[in-house]
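Researcher: We're teaching a course module on how sequence relates to structure. For the next exercise, students receive a sequence and then see the predicted structure as tokens, so they can try to spot secondary structure elements on their own. Here is the exercise chain.
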Amino acid sequence: MPAIDVKDLRKQFSVQKNREGLSGALKDLFRREYNEVVAVKDISFQIPEGEICGYIGENGAGKSTTIKMLTGILVPMSGELKVNGYVPFKDREKFVNGIGVVFGQRSQLWWDIGVIESFQLLRKVYRVSEADFRKRLNDLVERLQLGDLLNRPVRKLSLGQRMRCELVASLLHNPSILFLDEPTIGLDIVVKTEIRDFLMQMNREQGTTILLTTHDLQDIEALCSRVIMLDDGRIIYDGGLDELKNRWSKGREIQFQFAGHTALAKLQQLTESLAVTWTMESEMTAKMWLPHAVNVSDALSCVVGGVEIRDIKIIETNTDDIVRSIYSSGSAVATKETAKS
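Model: And here is the predicted structure for the students to work with:
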């Protein structure tokens, strides 16, 4: 049984349409008009136990709406979904004991009391025994280095400190599935790295299933082997991150700095058996562009034996650029040949 099973899931909202001007405002007082907005359009996917899956899309694509349906906050208009075998909006009490949720822009901690007091309240909400709570808390506090923060009011924590506490709060009852909605938003690179390392370790040691939504594609690259991409409420890609790169990347570039003057003709001769393109930057520097069909090690072996090299830099296509290309085209369905053109 998959941890998350979604079939033909759909969610529609009625959004009030505000008319312009004073007369329009008066009309709205007595007779309101609404637009129907479909946020999620008949999506289907499965996530097996123990997988870390990235759920990405532009603002308004339907990511948060999906998460809210998967966690039981919203009721879908149609379709089927099961999380840990439960229908989230029907089996609330049994269902919530198996999930943890972190919303990057919403807190589950109480603002004016100490962090440890928030944790104690959550222990009672989830009906965790005192012995299990202490054991779990001590482990999480040690891993995320929160010992000095437990007695501080939440309002006195920095954003990075609060997000680490939010993670602990979501994991006190030892859930098998963790939903993360923008968990690293606004954090500096040090805190982001700490949270990524913690999530990887937890997934590796405990097999926790993680569904991650984020605009930071470095989170996706660091954590996820699979990506589900949304656009205007529809899934436009569901597959491996490496496959996405191979399909859409325009190739790689190797920058060379040579020990002495090197002619373009010589470089072209050394790599004549490969479909690469050379560009001279100066007498001692050049760039070689490789399509994905050409192996980097093969290209390097051709050059290294023929000229003296002082420095090499390999540049991969940025994941951000790939995702932007997909959204500008409106579809992730492309052949490798199309991606190169």
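Model: If you want an answer key for the exercise: The CA atoms of residues 69 and 75 lie 6 Å apart. The mean pLDDT is 86.
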